[in-house]
Amino acid sequence: MISKARLKYIKSLQVKKYRKQEQCFVVEGAKGVQELLRSSFETVIVVGTEDFIHKHEASIIRSRAEVIVSKPDDLAQMGSFQTNDSALAVARMQNNEPPSLGSGEFALLLDDIRDPGNLGSIIRTADWYGLHHVIASSETADLYNPKVIHATMGSFTRVKVYNTDLPEFVSTSGLETYGAFLDGEDVHSAIFGNGGLIVIGNESGGISKSLASMITHRITIPRLGGAESLNASVATAVILDNVVRGRLIH
Amino acid sequence: MISKARLKYIKSLQVKKYRKQEQCFVVEGAKGVQELLRSSFETVIVVGTEDFIHKHEASIIRSRAEVIVSKPDDLAQMGSFQTNDSALAVARMQNNEPPSLGSGEFALLLDDIRDPGNLGSIIRTADWYGLHHVIASSETADLYNPKVIHATMGSFTRVKVYNTDLPEFVSTSGLETYGAFLDGEDVHSAIFGNGGLIVIGNESGGISKSLASMITHRITIPRLGGAESLNASVATAVILDNVVRGRLIH
């Protein structure tokens, strides 16, 4: 059984103010909790069904987290997703440290991605394509929002998100920058050089003016139909698929 | 001013049962309503701010829709999105007619895409890449759900969605079928022939067994990192980008 105090504490972490104060966040669902236990994040509390805890006993013991056994119905009430019927965890945030990008490495720059689902899906996509770093503007959705964490499907454990001022980051990085515009070079024939920053613009406004002027390679995703734009996470995936294409041996 | 009866009617269309009964659905936001007015869909009611109605007077008159002037605050209350401050419309559903695919044409087959945002984004992506038809299983989210219509960003006016039994559709179509699996041919080197059906699997379960056995071309999106899968709309975009690549003259 979970105590009222613990329940209140876990629920409070749905609010950004309390996450910041406690430096903790919630991971919901079996997949996310399993990935968390395997990761470099500190797991503070694991709440799970008897089944889940039994199945993952070794990794839970190793994590030294507080363990609370719960019924499936209670689990759904604790978190923000009604479909969770196996586990939930509280984890400690990691420091907001600037990434040191390796030679030939690509990273994403998120210019005000406001939708939590988009941010989560972008992190998951970055992880699929082997990227390790995402650099996000302060207007981008909070990584530790439960919707973001959930949409990453565990990829938050492998892709580090660093929040900073993007124009400043670009200018001090000295790296090549790529961004999608309507008048750029066809992404199918563009040459992605030896690493750099790929800028993903805001859902409705695209790439902001201050950043747009700093972009060294303007690219375009070919359009054959009537849609005016693509969803931000969809555009990210298409660009990354074209970036890695040249790097893979078939 | 909008009457109580009209307000109640519009609100009722957020529920599938009433949409089916009335054969009508709601389009929210300026972009969607503009696209609707330009489309082959019948517009039944336009609710808009004075500004919106003045700006789109010609197309609204042509549509012969009932026009209701509204304040921005009232508009947000009418629909399901709190950010709508310009227009909303009621439109008539179109018949669920089987598509007649042209030679060389590709269409998407959606095998239980349950998330409305995913379905909307898939329709938008299909539209971007010039597809005209989506064939969806009965377990796929309802096209006329306000969240789906909104996520299409107007593409529901150009891409027709047909609901049917997928295995039956595939077997009677006699077309080539493509589907993403973990053990398929690399999508970067796969040859997409002269049209066919591209199957997109369910968000958590992938492509169902009954359909999987009917797929003639198993493809795989190359993975370099740790994510186990891609979001369904993201995977759709990567596949379509590779399908059209061979067809474009650079």
Helix content of chain A: 25-40%
Give the structural class of chain A.
Answer: alpha/beta
- What Rg of chain A do the Cα atoms give? 20 Å
Indicate the mean pLDDT of chain A.
93
Beta-strand residue fraction of chain A: 15-25%
User: How many angstroms separate the termini of chain A?
Assistant: 54 Å
Order of helices and strands of chain A: HHEHEHHEHEEHEHEHEEHEH
Largest sheet of chain A: 6 strands, parallel
Description:
2 copies of one chain form a homodimer. In chain A, the strands form 2 sheets. A 6-stranded parallel β-sheet of chain A has the order 7-6-5-9-8-10, covered by helices on one side. A 4-stranded mixed β-sheet of chain A has the order 1-4-2-3. Chain A is an alpha/beta fold and 250 residues long. In chain A, 47% of the residues are buried. In chain A, helix 7 packs parallel to helix 11 (232-245). Chain A has helices spanning 4-12, 16-22, 30-38, 50-55, 57-63, 72-78, 116-128, 146-151, 166-173, 209-212, 232-245, and strands at residues 24-28, 43-48, 66-69, 87-92, 106-110, 133-136, 160-163, 177-186, 196-200, 217-220. Chains A and B meet through helix 7 and helix 11 of A and helix 7 and helix 11 of B.
